[in-house]
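Example 9 (inverse folding). The structure is encoded as follows.
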């Protein structure tokens, strides 16, 4: 015991660390970012043989992009799970979502004589109601392979306030059906003679099958979902790193325990 104390005091004196009777050795525990101070187990000082926490700053983790890459590399399982939680349901919804196509036809209502605008609009406003009646929608549905109710839900007819143009917009799951519905409604408006005393209908713009569906395309939606999945995966990796750091590293010895010696 006395030989060990003498060797420790000689070593500490050679290192020139403070008082030769109360020197300490600093051991940096890199894996826990904790610094402890070890005192030799000899001498009359009651604090000898104890461990105490140093006031030196903790070892910091890499920050910025380097820290993010390190977190994803070390906790790739958490990052993958976080990304899949977003990507799998989003991909399923995008893949099963039905595309919608819209086609428009325009029929101009040319007045037969000079009349006030308010009167012309009052008369013209009755034409959409007639075109969306069951009598008309059933005949249009027979050509499109749809019921009268389906045609009524798929078609909207309006007359913009600035013109007397009858605009029909048809929505369907394929472009050909959308164009067929819009053109059939335009044909019914052209064939109607109820308002021939006031208007002469003229086809201004027939509907053509649209090339692209309405709304955001599936490719763009999938790309957005992928970006969100990457962000969520990175956040999951950072959280996993913080949790693992909070649990890692042994507890410091109690004050009444002495450090192991060789």
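The amino acid assigned to each position is listed next.
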């Amino acid at each position: 015991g006395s030989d060990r104390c003498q060797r420790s005091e000689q070593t500490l004196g050679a290192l020139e660390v403070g008082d030769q009777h109360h020197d300490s050795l600093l051991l940096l525990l890199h894996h826990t970012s904790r610094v402890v101070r070890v005192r030799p187990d000899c001498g009359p000082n009651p604090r000898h043989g104890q461990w105490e926490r140093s006031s030196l700053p903790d070892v910091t983790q890499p920050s910025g992009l380097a820290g993010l890459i390190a977190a994803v590399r070390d906790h790739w399982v958490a990052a993958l799970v976080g990304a899949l939680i977003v990507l799998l349901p989003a991909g399923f919804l995008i893949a099963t979502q039905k595309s919608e196509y819209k086609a428009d036809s325009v029929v101009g209502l040319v007045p037969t004589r000079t009349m006030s605008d308010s009167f012309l609009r009052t008369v013209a406003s009755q034409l959409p109601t007639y075109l969306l009646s069951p009598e008309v929608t059933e005949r249009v549905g027979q050509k499109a392979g749809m019921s009268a109710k389906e045609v009524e839900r798929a078609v909207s007819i309006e007359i913009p306030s600035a013109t007397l143009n009858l605009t029909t917009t048809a929505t369907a799951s394929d472009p050909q059906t959308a164009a067929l519905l819009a053109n059939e409604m335009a044909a019914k408006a052209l064939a109607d003679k109820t308002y021939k005393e006031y208007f002469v209908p003229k086809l201004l713009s027939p509907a053509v099958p649209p090339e692209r569906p309405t709304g955001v395309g599936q490719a763009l939606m999938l790309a957005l979902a992928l970006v969100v999945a990457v962000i969520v995966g990175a956040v999951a990796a950072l959280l996993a790193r913080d949790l693992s750091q909070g649990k890692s590293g042994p507890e410091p010895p109690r004050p009444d325990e002495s450090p192991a010696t060789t």
